[in-house]
Specification:
The complex is a heterodimer of chains A (205) and B (403). Chain A has 205 residues and is α/β, with parallel strands linked by helices. Chain A has 2 domains: 8-137, D-Maltodextrin-Binding Protein, domain 2, CATH 3.40.190; 141-203, Arc Repressor Mutant, subunit A. Chain A contains 7 helices and 5 strands; from the N terminus they run E-H-E-H-E-H-E-H-E-H-H-H. Chain A has a 5-stranded mixed beta sheet with strand order 2-1-3-5-4, with helices on both faces. In chain A, strand 1 (13-16), helix 1 (20-32) and strand 2 (38-41) form a beta-alpha-beta unit. Chain A is elongated, with a radius of gyration of 26 Å. By secondary structure, chain B is an alpha/beta fold. Chain B folds into 3 domains: 5-89 and 214-267 and 296-347, D-Maltodextrin-Binding Protein, domain 2 (3-Layer(aba) Sandwich), CATH 3.40.190; 91-210, Periplasmic binding protein-like II (D-Maltodextrin-Binding Protein, domain 2, 3-Layer(aba) Sandwich); 359-401, no CATH class. Helix content of chain B is 41%, strand content 19%. In chain B, helix 8 (170-178) packs parallel to helix 9 and helix 9 (191-199) crosses helix 14. Chain B is globular. The termini of chain B are far apart. The chains are: A alpha/beta (205), B alpha/beta (403). At the A-B interface, helix 3 and helix 4 of A face helix 3 of B.
Chain lengths: 205, 403
């Protein structure tokens, strides 16, 4: 068990996150900030028992985790953990709770631990959670763009074959149509592909 | 058309989110000029947190939880009110195939009579050596926890000494049963039916047998939001009431089961949702049982937020050591439920109202016509052990249950 000196490394931090990539991102952040004593749990089997073994000072958990009710109950109701743990709620700072919930993270701390000691951990977790969602969003967008490009290429092929156009002409025609109809070029491409497959299921590019 | 009211509601994937889902999907919210956004969560803790930071304005929530929040038992502890209930009943106690066969040998009956099942369980516990039986419920401050404990105690089983009661997310319960980690659980639907269908589980008894016409989920409202949006709240109660009528109509049960089954809602097959709506439940193997008033969305004033329900939950919080009994705590519990808001919001719909806002729970042995404005039938609302809870005498009820 950690003693109560003020070096970050003395705090026993547990990160519970089913998303193991996100958990590692948090872990790296914590280690960089000098928290050497970090444990990750990404498999929820036997969670209660493992928490008791690890006996953490601070727990960071994603709020989508369905085990939060169980987690809170083992802290509050039973005497299963040696030291009572409460949710990290800094009553003087409602904005930080909001930022945490917004980011999708929650934290619990051992009773008696000074809030100042935990605030940097929560702050770090919030920023890493946000960074992770941003990354995910960008990844999604990139995937979307790739999909769009494929659709546009297929539609171009259809036009080139059916109307004997060059690639540039086919693209220009789609772009003109999109502008005239105030639609996105990928929507025009999608319509073309749908129409082609309806008219002749065999010619789908 | 732009809606007059924008309301965001949190819910958990459970059958009794039906009123909210129907209000949105069947247009009852839109009729009241509400743009209703439903946000699904995976734990009650997160519902509470989102209420606290105003990510959601209202939520489908465990009936005792707003009381627990107002008593400061949770952190964060959003100030909450309960202006409406979201139905009566809907839970069951489900046990493993092994435990059920043992219970059946000891006299548990296939009609799931709570007394026979309880006595059978007590016999098993009395002769059992080694590890205690383990049960799971969804949350400490839940109807599930309190009704399971009530049933066990009234059957002569100490819920803390003779068995172990832990918390698990409902979707994990049936698997935990199969894995032998627990012996039984008390949960809402569809988690009991799914346990029977896929995990060889058997129902041991049902909420409707332990305490007839008993409260389960309510509409929990952030009181700051309620203060600032009285018209939106009234409109929402009207939409939900209309939804409750639609949900109660047996011609709509199949459509409702299909709606709830969608990926955005409960995300489980309609076959697992229909039994709770029709009351014809698969209780184990191929055995079917028709259970009267298993889940009641509208009849018997099922959406009325009874003060006596709030106070009964409060007595159980005291009973199991969740809170110390003081006049002030009792007042907080009493004030959490707001039948006054319910009455004034639904006046426009000409809804039949009970004359009182509190009743002696357990006193109605048969369905009884009551009501000040139109035809309304209440009850039966009996506890299986014949117990009575008089909300005018909370002290003696608490004293009678003291250990």
């Amino acid at each position: 068990m950690a003693n109560r000196s003020s070096k970050p490394g003395d705090l026993n931090v547990l990160v519970i996150d089913e998303n193991s990539i996100r958990a590692s991102i948090i872990e790296v952040g914590l280690r960089e900030a000098g928290y050497d004593n970090v444990t990750i749990i990404d498999d929820m089997n036997g969670l209660a028992r493992r928490i008791m073994e690890i006996n953490p000072d601070v727990i960071v958990i994603d709020i989508e985790n369905p085990n939060r009710d169980m987690l809170e109950s083992i802290f509050q109701i039973s005497r299963a953990v040696k030291r009572p743990i409460a949710m990290f709620v800094d009553k003087s700072d409602e904005a930080s709770i909001e930022a945490a919930v917004e980011a999708g993270v929650s934290a619990y701390i051992v009773d008696g631990l000074k809030q100042e000691r935990v605030r940097p951990i929560l702050k770090m977790a919030i920023s890493r959670f946000n960074a992770f969602s941003r990354l995910n969003r960008e990844l999604e967008e990139t995937r979307g763009e790739l999909e769009n490009r494929k659709l546009i290429d297929r539609a171009k092929g259809l036009l080139m074959r059916s109307r004997g156009l060059t690639e540039d002409e086919a693209y220009a025609l789609m772009r003109r149509t999109a502008m005239n109809q105030n639609r996105k070029i990928v929507e025009i491409a999608q319509s073309l592909i749908t129409a082609a497959s309806l008219l002749d299921p065999g010619t789908d590019a | 058309m732009t809606s007059t009211h924008q309301i965001t509601a949190g819910f958990l994937p459970l059958l009794d989110s039906a009123l909210l889902v129907a209000a949105k999907e069947k247009g009852f919210a839109a009729e009241q000029e509400i743009e209703l956004t439903l946000v699904r969560e995976r734990s009650w803790a997160t519902i509470r947190d989102r209420l606290a930071v105003s990510h959601v304005d209202v939520a489908h929530i465990l009936a005792p939880m707003p009381i627990a929040c107002n008593l400061g038992l949770t952190a964060p502890a959003p100030r909450m009110i309960v202006p409406m209930a979201l139905g009566l009943g809907g839970n069951a106690v489900t046990v493993s195939a092994d435990l059920w066969s043992e219970m059946a040998e000891c006299g548990a009956s296939p009609d799931l009579d709570a007394r026979a099942s309880g006595l059978a369980l007590r016999q098993i516990i009395n002769r059992r050596k080694g590890e205690r039986l383990r049960f799971s419920v969804v949350h400490p401050y839940s109807g599930h926890n309190y009704e399971l404990r009530y049933w066990l105690s009234a059957s002569g089983i100490d819920p803390d000494e003779d068995v172990e009661i832990g918390i698990l997310p409902p979707p994990d319960m049936a698997d935990a049963l199969t894995a032998g980690l627990i012996d039984g659980y008390c949960a809402g639907e569809p988690w009991n039916t799914l346990g029977v269908l896929h995990n060889h589980a058997h129902l041991a008894t049902v909420k409707a047998a332990i305490w007839k016409s008993s409260p389960e989920k309510v509409l929990g409202v952030n009181s700051r939001w309620a203060d600032g949006h009285p018209e939106a709240l009234a409109a929402l109660l009207q939409a939900l009431y209309t939804a409750s009528l639609w949900c109660a109509d047996n011609r709509n049960h199949e459509e409702l089961a299909n709606l709830l089954a969608k990926p955005a809602y409960v995300d489980r097959p309609p076959e697992s949702l229909l039994p709770a709506l029709t009351g014809l439940l698969r209780i184990g193997g191929r055995e079917m049982l028709s259970i009267k008033d298993f889940f009641v969305p509208n009849a018997k004033a099922a959406t009325f937020p009874w003060k006596s329900h709030a106070l009964w939950f409060y007595t159980q919080m005291v009973r199991w050591g969740h809170i110390r009994h003081t006049a002030e705590h009792q007042q907080i519990a009493n004030d959490t439920y707001r039948p006054d808001i319910y009455r004034s919001a639904l006046k426009a719909l000409d809804v039949a109202m009970p004359a009182a806002s509190s009743k002696v729970e357990g006193a109605l042995r048969v369905a009884t016509p009551v009501g000040s404005s139109g035809a309304l039938t209440l009850g039966p609302d009996g506890f299986f052990d014949g117990g009575l809870f008089d909300p005018a005498d909370v002290d003696s009820y608490i004293a009678s249950q003291a250990r």
